[in-house]
Design a protein that fits this description.
Number of helices: 5
Oligomer: single chain
Shape: globular
Order of helices and strands: EEEEEEEHEEEEEEHHHH
Distance between the termini: 26 Å
Number of strands: 13
Radius of gyration: 17 Å
Structural class: alpha+beta
Helix content: 10-25%
Strand content: 25-35%
Length: about 260
């Protein structure tokens, strides 16, 4: 069964317009990003930077009211956002047993980013997770699966995931950030006391239950500044560019073609 759902570039001035095409099977759902009636890749074809703006684009994978785990498939053609019922049953049960902080943010990824798993961070003495950067979008509006949103960088924290480091970027959609004058994690905390701490604690509990670690928050639970977070994003964008150009090789068979 196919289903269309129109998603304009959220709250942005850009003329780009996207919609989604959903394919449903017995145990799997695939959401494709579309532009001009063509399938495109949310990882490769959505630009990371907005010209002259203090925002970047993000692609949402999990709306904040949803408990199912949708994620961009790095290996499949056009990199659809997929939900695998059988694969997610165990994680779904685990997320339900832990306090539902997932309802507090939209969860997605930063396009045109990637951390090479061969890279070892000297401070943490850990390898990277071999994925695009993850985003916790903190706005009041529930973003749809596959929705592309212009957002401001507020900060970041790092978690342990399968003995690798995994950055989570705090972001807020551009319109809400400008309206409330929220440009840093500290600004956000003044409007929403202790919310960032609760989100980080949720990730800590989830990763601890998933991988039997005593503490999954790295770097002493530090939230990076905006400047430090932008350095993380630029580094991941650089290694992504090297992946696309062939200077770096991925361990897996990623689908790396562009459709635009």
């Amino acid at each position: 069964m196919l289903r269309f759902a129109v998603n304009y570039l959220s709250r942005g001035i850009s003329k780009r317009c996207y919609n989604t095409l959903t394919e449903t099977g017995k145990d799997i759902i695939k959401v494709y990003l579309m532009q001009n009636e063509k399938r495109i890749s949310p990882w490769h074809d959505v630009p990371i930077w907005n010209d002259g703006a203090a925002t970047i684009n993000i692609v949402n994978e999990i709306p904040y009211k949803l408990n199912q785990k949708y994620a961009v498939s790095k290996n499949e053609q056009y990199n659809p956002i997929c939900y695998n019922l059988k694969k997610d049953l165990q994680n779904h049960t685990r997320r339900k047993t832990i306090k539902r902080e997932f309802t507090m943010f939209n969860y997605g990824m930063v396009p045109q980013t990637w951390y090479d798993s061969a890279f070892i961070d000297q401070k943490m003495n850990l390898c990277a997770e071999d994925d695009p950067l993850d985003v916790c979008e903190l706005g009041e509006k529930e973003l749809e699966i596959g929705e592309v949103c212009r957002a401001r960088v507020l900060g970041a924290f790092c978690v342990l995931d399968r003995n690798k480091f995994d950055w989570k970027i705090f972001m807020l959609n551009e319109v809400e950030a400008n309206a409330k004058k929220i440009f840093t994690a500290e600004d956000y905390e003044r409007h929403n006391p202790h919310k960032l701490e609760r989100i980080m604690n949720w990730f800590n509990k989830y990763k601890m239950s998933q991988f039997s670690t005593s503490n999954a928050l790295l770097l002493d639970s530090k939230i990076l500044s905006v400047g430090e977070t932008l350095e993380v994003i630029r580094a991941a964008n650089k290694t992504y560019a090297e992946l696309i150009s062939g200077k770096r090789a991925a361990k897996d068979s990623f689908w790396l073609s562009t459709s635009i």
